[in-house]
Amino acid sequence: MITPQEIKDLIEAGLPDARVRVSGDGHHFEATVVSPAFRGKSRIQQHQLVYATLGDRMREQIHALSLKTDLP
To answer: What secondary structure letter does DSSP report for 27?
Structure first.
């Protein structure tokens, strides 16, 4: 089972300048990601950047992720 801390670490590794907060119960997670990498990108593109940091875990280990993204 993946933990909120592991999700946070993965997002931070993929988006090094991001501020990340993740909570959850092991099945359902909520993440807030604030990153300068989102500048000029649509909300969908911002979410795609975050999902890319999680890779196959989005299909295999993370069943539900509520995601909020923003610029610093």
So the answer is: S
